[in-house]
Amino acid sequence: MLRREQNELLSQTGPNTPGGRLFRRYWIPALLVEELPNAECAPVRVKLLSERLLAFRDTHDRYGLIDEFCAHRGVSLWFARNEEGGLRCPYHGWKYDYTGQCVEVPSEPEESGFCRKIKLKSYPLVERGGVLWTYMGPPDKRPPLPEWEFATVPREQSFTSKRLQECNWLQAMEGGIDSSHVSFLHRGELSSDPLFKGAKGNQYNLGDTKPVFEVADSPGGLYVGARRNTEDGNYYWRITQWVMPSFTMIPPRGDHPVHGHFWIPIDDENCWAWSFDYHALRPLTASEVAAMRDGKGIHVRYMPGTFRPMANKDNDYLIDREAQKAGRTYSGVAGIAMQDASLQESMGPIVDRTKENLVSTDNGIIMARHRLLRAIKDLIDKDATPPGVDTEHQRVRSASVVLEPSQAFVDAATDALNVRPGVAHSTV
Amino acid sequence: MSSESARANAAAEARFRIDDANWHQRVVKVMALDRRSEPVVRRLAQGRWGGATFFTASAFAPAPSPNADMQFSMASWLSDLAGRTKDLLDELNTADLVAMVATAGENLQQVVSVIGEACKAKHVTTIAFVLGSASTPQDALSRTLTQLRPWTLMLVIAASEEAIIETLAALRA
Which of A21, A118, A168, B7 is deepest in the core (most CB within 10 A)? Predict the structure, then answer.
């Protein structure tokens, strides 16, 4: 349960909101690199943190992320011509470069220098790991580029997708640190999804539906440990990484690629669910990539030409009551990602957390909210750099391990919880 | 025509949600397990709580008799913060949740076992907070966690008292 004002503090991320100021201290994923496939390609509308922006790739392959609207009369530059090093508004020919600087106002004498007095708001847009990242905060606080392992391994070892989720970012993210739902909502997929099935750990998941949770602070966020009993008296631990503000990494299963998410606010009622899969040591196989493109694992199939899932609220998520009754899916919705998204969207655009009744398995969620609220307070009161900005906090891994009962998971799995170049994930 | 989900998920539909409380006050017993956690629980008790009461088990000591199991009294070691002796089983009769607060490194085997066994018998959920800091030796933390683990459904290694307050508030204590 959260008080109303706490709920608003966490769920609002627009400009000048406390939560918005927090998000604006991080590099966040903005677009897939293939959305801007070549120089002078069509610009792309991007809404992030309740700001309407336009991304483009200019003649010289420079990426720009600028205010969507022309400074002249407010026309959307989505209609602009991408030509000769900038975007030209088709209405009166005003032209902007990749920094948002107006470089041409045809109606004014060139020598007047009028155009130099016009500049659209812009943010850096940088490619890393197949993702275009942006930083929307104060320029003097701009951190080094992100170093998440999925974005730094060779491209053939990773696959990233994104999908529109039509609810507030926080209720989407909270699903990423609530591993107790896996044994229910996703139980069908543990034995059928090609990117999940076959792992020994799945048997522990299915065999013990009452995991016990331990949560500990990590430098960048939380370690959320879910403990289940093994057949020989030891504990099977699934350790999820949550790094502030909205990175979650799911514990691995067998030799499958490891996956996780970024939950990035579009506005307060929509977010992007960024989904990545990678293997630390080997290229993804053709069949793995095919499965990901086909919407398996944590990915989805799309409505053609969009990043909106094929199963969405407008078609009742293609719910199949027969499949639900027969146990092929637990909720009747197919696919792990949409099983989560359908339920999270059903909460409403922003869930009313004053109504909820949390229990012991929700302690990851409770602690994540606590850390977010604390970071917001420290940022507002003391301008303190929040956890997760430091690239050291980003070089983390999730893990699944079997430990003796006497071992603290954070202690016993220290190596497993950090990036070790040339070493595979610890997995069961 | 929009689907049922599209209509139901809309923000405007939120105003039709039933506004009655969907919960009854939980009765939460917060217990300091050792002397170092006792001041923490005293400070917690200063907050505004709906159904939380606060105790200390830091006076816990096994009965001196060699036949301790036979003579140990459940009525002699638990007290409220005013110092009044309380009977654990009586307290558990009305409890929904027991939240134990422990300090990393303390030897809590016996007190945790007694509370844990009693909660198990009474079907009362237990959670635990372990107070630690960056300077807490890992083996001390591990020892305390190992003692608590068999008896708790949720363990939080709390770097601050604030984390305990927020967790108890989130659980509607």
Answer: A168
